[in-house]
Design a protein that fits this description.
134 residues; 3-stranded antiparallel sheet; single chain
Length: 134
Amino acid sequence: METTRSSPETTRSDTGTARSPAVVATLSALLLLAASIAGQIAAGADYPTVPPGLVIPLVAAALLVWRTNRGTTGLALGIGLFIGTGAILTPNTGDHLSSGDTALIASTAAELVALATLVIAGAAATLARKGARH
């Protein structure tokens, strides 16, 4: 039987894994980002056959689950900044938001929320891990 103990700083299970709220928020943002891209594709947005905005966050989330350290939290932060910059600089985001398609608008709004959360939580997780040794 596995029990879970939690404190305000960490969530820990008997398996020995501990994740701060900032790391959990970073993981959640990465998964929301991937889901929002999938939603945009389902709504008919034009994406490449293998959409990098879907694959990159999933790989980063897997790395963060596998090895939570300053490097993987920093990678997640970098991904948020990189994809976020692309979302702001390309006309696609504005086109999606003004398309009139409810699914496309909702998935694009979810992408923007995920990117903002990813940058904030990724920065918090990276700065918090500065003194941690993992």
